[in-house]
Amino acid sequence: MFDVVAVDRSPFTLQQQVIDWGAQMWRGELRLPPLDADEAAEWEGWLGALRGQRGTFLLGDPGRPAPRGTATSGAVTGSAGDETVSVTLNGTLLRGDVFQLGIGADARLHKVVQDCSGSGSMEIWPVLRKDRTAAAMTLTDAKGNFRLASNDRAWGIAGGGWRSFIIPVVEAV
Which residues are paired to 133 by β-bridges? Predict the structure, then answer.
């Protein structure tokens, strides 16, 4: 998670001025377990097919395939830049649950910042990227659109031929 926020401190009074530029995006690393040569070849081919930062892919959190709350469907309405949106849920979403808006290249992954149930307002991260009107929420296996954080792609080869990959990624904003 990355927020564009600047903090300036006076060298005389030590008072701080905080400027929130309103930009937010997902970023992280994919860390793969040690792979044998055949398994690694599949990943090497996928990394090549991305053509560096040109290609994009859908990515979610495999450790959180469903929300911890009880909601199985919902809809979001809000404007680009909103961090609080209107929602209609058929249950609850808990702080830290994630959901998807849009599909394919338009897929955006959002995190619930405060518990929410039923209809009302919900605080999310990151802000909405575009206006949404009664946009359906994907709550199971939610994903966002990502790309490689760099054009460099490298992997290590350990004893016994085991390969290791650490793949830095960023949201395709």
Answer: none
Q: Which residues have C-beta within 8 Å of that of residue 153, sequence separation ≥ 6?
A: 47, 48, 52, 167
Q: Smallest Cα–Cα separation from 59: which of 173, 165, 169?
A: 169
Burial of 98 from C-beta contacts in 10 A (0-12 / 13-18 / 19+)? buried
C-alpha span between 35 and 43 (Å, rounded):
10
Structure tokens at 156: 């290590």
pLDDT tens-digit series, residues 10-65: 999 999 999 989 889 999 999 999 999 999 999 999 999 999 999 999 999 988 89
| Cross-strand pairs, 18 | 7
How many CB atoms sit inside 10 A of residue 148's CB?
A: 22
